Amino acid sequence: MVLVTHIIIAISSLFYTTYAFLFPSEAKLKVSYGFIAATIGSGTVLVVTMPAHMVSACISGLSYLSLMMVGIFGMHYRLRSEKIRVRSHLDR
Fold first, then answer.
1. How far apart are CA 83 and CA 16, in angstroms?
2. In a 3-state reduction of DSSP, which class is residue 24?
3. Cα distances (angstroms) measured from residue 11 to each of 5, 16, 78, 89
4. Domain total for the chain?
5. Sign of the CA dihedral 50, 56, 62, 65?
């Protein structure tokens, strides 16, 4: 049951972060952080309960985390660019 929950959380977080990358906001960024925490938490439970699968779990976890960080860094960049554009527009 934990495995199914873990997979659902991980896939949902990838879809949500993609959506948030396309339409960024501070609130969506925080939700993405929550998804990462939930995925790492459930992954930790899986590794503790099934230590034989630790190597594949670590490789999958690093791949997941890399994808999520690309999305989150992209959101930060887009939000920062938007704030700079709005600020420069207001200065005129």
1. 22
2. coil
3. 10, 9, 23, 38
4. 1
5. negative
Give the model confidence (pLDDT) of 21-54 as tens digits: 999 998 999 999 999 999 999 988 888 888 777 7
Any idea which residue has 């969506």 for tokens? 28
pTM over 0.90: no
Question: What is the residue range of 22's domain?
Answer: 2-90
Structure tokens that stand for 46 in this block: 């899986």
Q: Read off the pLDDT of residues 61-72 as tens digits, 9 standing for 90 and up.
A: 888 889 999 999
Question: CA 29 to CA 34: how far, in whole Å?
Answer: 9
Rounded to whole angstroms, how far apart are CA atoms 24 and 74? 9
> In the structure encoding, which two tokens stand for residue 11, read together?
């896939």
